[in-house]
Specification:
The chain has 408 residues and is α+β, with helices and mostly antiparallel strands. It has one domain: phage-related protein like fold. The strands form 7 sheets. Strands 7-22-18-13-15-14 form a 6-stranded mixed sheet, sandwiched between helices. Strands 1, 4, 19, 20 and 21 form a 5-stranded mixed sheet that branches. 25% of the residues are buried.
Length: 408
C-alpha cells in the first residue's frame, strides 16, 4: 500500500499544473492607448494644446469692402522627458535549481532546464510589473489628466496634460465639462440672479439665502450621486451621463463608460426610478454587441459588463465596472487601480499614445526600443545578474475627451 501511494507512483498521472491563486492580467485601461507602439529617438516629446478655438462663419460683404483678417487660435506647449523604469533579477543557486520545480514529475530533476525555466519566469514577472506600471499611468491619465513618475530611486516628475477642470458651480453650467468633483466643488454667494436653481442644488453648507432677493452668504458643495439625492431630485446620474457623453462628442468618439460599483448603484437606481422604459430599451442593445463585450469582460481581471445605454443620437455604449488591484511596491498593500465614486468616459484608442524612448545603455546603442535586457556576472557573488530596461511616455492627444467625474 505504501508503495502504491508513493510520489513516484502517483507522479505518473500528473499531467499539468494547478495554480492555487491564478491571476488574469489587468489591462483594461491600456486598451484605450492603441494596440501598437511608437518609438522616438528624441530626448523629449512636445504636446501642443490649442485654445480659443471658435467655429466662426463667413461674413457677407459688398464687393469693395474689406474684412478683418483671420486670426488663428492660440496654443501652448509642454515638453516632456521620458520616464525610465527597470526590473532586475539574479540567477538561482544550484540547490534551488536542483530541487523539484512546479510542474515537474517527482523524482525527475533537470537542473539546466530548471535554470532556464526560472530565468524565463523572472522575465515574465518583470513584464507583468511593467504592465502594472503602464496600467497605473493609464488610470491616472483618465482620473486626473496626468500621472507621476516617482519612487525611492526616481525624482518625482509630474506629467500634466492640462485638462479643463470645473472648480465652481458656475463652471457646471457650461455644456462642456471634462472633469469635476461633485463631492467638493463649492458654490458661493452672491450668485447670478438669473440662476434660480442654485439653492436647490447646493447642500451641506452653511450661511443664509434670501430666495426673493437671490442674495445671501451660503456656501455649499454640489450634489453627489446617492440614492437619497436621486430620490429628492438633486442628483441626476442619467442626465449627468448624457452631459459627459456630449462633452466627449465635441472632440472625439467614446468607446465605453466605466463606473465604480457605488457610482453604478446610484446610476442604476436613477434608471429604475425615473427611466424605467429607457432602461428596458437598452437591454435589447446587448444582443447586438455581446460578441465583443462579454468575452472582453471575461478575460480581464475585475472587469464586469453592467449594461448598455442608448443616447439620443442612436449610439449605444457599454458601461463597465472595473475592480482590478495591484500590490503597492513600497507598502505591499493590495490597492485598487480605480477607487470608489468615479465615472469615466473612455475615448477610442487612437487618442491615447504610448511612446518608447532611448534605452540609456551603451550595449543598446542608446536606441529607442520597447525593452532592453542587460546581463553581467557579479565579480563578488559569482552570480549572473539581469536588468530589463524601458523608457516610455504615455499621453493623450485629446485630453478633454477623457471624461472624469468624481460623483460620490
Amino acid at each position: 500500500m505504501s508503495e502504491f501511494l508513493s510520489p513516484y507512483a502517483v507522479g505518473k498521472v500528473l499531467s499539468g499544473v494547478l495554480e492555487a491563486l491564478p491571476l488574469s492580467r489587468p489591462n483594461w485601461m491600456q486598451t484605450f492607448f492603441g494596440t501598437g507602439f511608437k518609438t522616438s529617438e528624441k530626448q523629449t516629446i512636445n504636446f501642443d494644446r490649442e485654445y480659443g478655438i471658435k467655429n466662426v462663419m463667413g461674413t457677407f460683404v459688398s464687393p469693395d469692402a474689406d474684412v478683418t483678417p483671420i486670426q488663428l487660435s492660440n496654443f501652448d506647449t509642454v515638453e516632456f522627458y521620458f520616464s525610465y523604469a527597470k526590473e532586475g533579477w539574479t540567477d538561482d543557486s544550484f540547490n534551488q535549481i536542483n530541487q523539484r520545480q512546479m510542474g515537474d514529475q517527482f523524482g525527475i530533476v533537470n537542473p539546466l532546464a530548471n535554470a532556464a525555466r526560472r530565468l524565463q519566469e523572472k522575465m515574465i514577472e518583470a513584464e507583468h510589473r511593467f504592465e502594472n506600471l503602464f496600467e497605473q499611468c493609464a488610470v491616472n491619465l483618465a482620473l486626473y489628466g496626468g500621472y507621476e513618475a516617482s519612487s525611492e530611486k526616481h525624482p518625482r516628475v509630474r506629467y500634466n496634460f492640462n485638462r479643463t477642470v470645473a472648480t465652481a458651480y458656475t463652471d457646471f453650467q457650461s455644456p462642456l465639462m471634462p472633469s469635476v468633483n461633485l463631492t467638493t466643488t463649492a458654490v458661493t454667494a452672491p450668485w447670478d440672479s438669473s440662476i434660480t436653481v442654485m439653492p436647490v442644488i447646493a447642500t451641506g453648507g452653511s450661511g443664509t439665502w434670501d430666495s426673493d432677493l437671490n442674495t445671501g452668504t451660503y456656501t455649499a458643495g454640489m450634489k453627489a450621486w446617492t440614492k437619497a439625492n436621486v430620490t429628492n431630485g438633486t442628483a441626476t446620474p442619467v442626465k449627468d451621463l448624457v452631459k459627459m457623453y456630449a462633452t466627449a462628442l465635441k472632440r472625439t468618439r467614446l468607446a465605453a463608460f466605466h463606473m465604480s460599483d457605488d457610482a453604478y448603484a446610484a446610476f442604476n437606481f436613477d434608471v429604475e426610478t425615473n427611466y424605467s422604459s429607457a432602461g428596458l430599451n437598452t437591454v435589447n442593445a446587448i444582443l447586438s454587441i455581446q460578441r465583443d463585450i462579454l468575452p472582453r469582460a471575461q478575460q480581464i481581471q475585475g472587469l464586469t459588463f453592467r449594461r448598455t445605454w442608448a443616447f439620443d443620437n442612436g449610439e449605444s455604449l457599454p458601461i463597465y465596472t472595473y475592480n482590478a488591484t495591484y500590490h503597492d511596491r513600497m507598502t505591499g498593500v493590495q490597492t485598487a487601480y480605480i477607487g470608489s465614486g468615479w465615472v469615466l468616459g473612455l475615448p477610442i484608442a487612437e487618442n491615447g499614445i504610448k511612446v518608447y524612448g532611448r534605452i540609456m545603455h551603451p550595449d543598446a546603442q542608446y536606441a529607442a526600443m520597447p525593452r532592453f535586457v542587460n546581463s553581467w556576472k557579479n565579480s563578488k557573488t559569482g552570480k549572473w545578474e539581469w536588468e530589463e530596461h524601458t523608457s516610455f511616455m504615455m499621453g493623450h492627444t485629446n485630453i478633454n475627451a477623457l471624461i472624469s467625474w468624481k460623483v460620490k
